[in-house]
Amino acid sequence: MIRKATLNDVDAIKSIINFYAKQELMLHRSVSELYESIRNFYVCEIDGDVVGCCGLQVLWVDLAEILSFAILPEYRGKCIGTQLLDACLDDAHELGVTSVFTLTYAPVFFEKNNFKLVDKATLPHKIWSGCIKCHKFPDCDEIALSLELS
């Protein structure tokens, strides 16, 4: 079941995100950050357990970022990622966002969902505010992809 995240999901979201962050596949998120941005998140719940999460962070009047997109390894390949992404894109569309981007190490998934590769240099500098927290900054090796919403 895909649903909006609640405050009770913070520990599970943090655990999933930090599982991948320990492998340097995404940024760590603190409990504080997650509480502050909980309204941005969707989760997938199976048998009472949160097994995946995805956030939509609005950055400007027409721009949002898909972030903290993660699914527990044993649940990958079960269309959960597509469902989480669709929930965020539906949210973006309802808000009136016209462009969504992501920085990722999983470009194939996003390309299968109609995202196009873009040069990170074309993304507004405001986007990079989260990048300052990363130990790889300014030498980011994530791949930037973007989707124009109709």
TrEMBL record:
The keyword Lipid biosynthesis does not apply. The keyword Acyltransferase applies. One of its GO terms (molecular function) is L-glutamate N-acetyltransferase activity. SUPFAM superfamilies: Acyl-CoA N-acyltransferases (Nat). InterPro entries: Acyl_CoA_acyltransferase, GNAT_dom, NH2A_AcTrfase. GO terms for cellular component: cytoplasm. Keywords: Acyltransferase, Transferase. Transmembrane segments: none annotated. GO terms for biological process: L-arginine biosynthetic process. Residues 1-150 form the N-acetyltransferase domain. PANTHER family: AMINO-ACID ACETYLTRANSFERASE (PTHR30602), AMINO-ACID ACETYLTRANSFERASE NAGS1, CHLOROPLASTIC-RELATED (PTHR30602:SF12). NCBIfam families: PRK07757.1. This is N-acetyltransferase. It comes from Methanococcoides seepicolus.
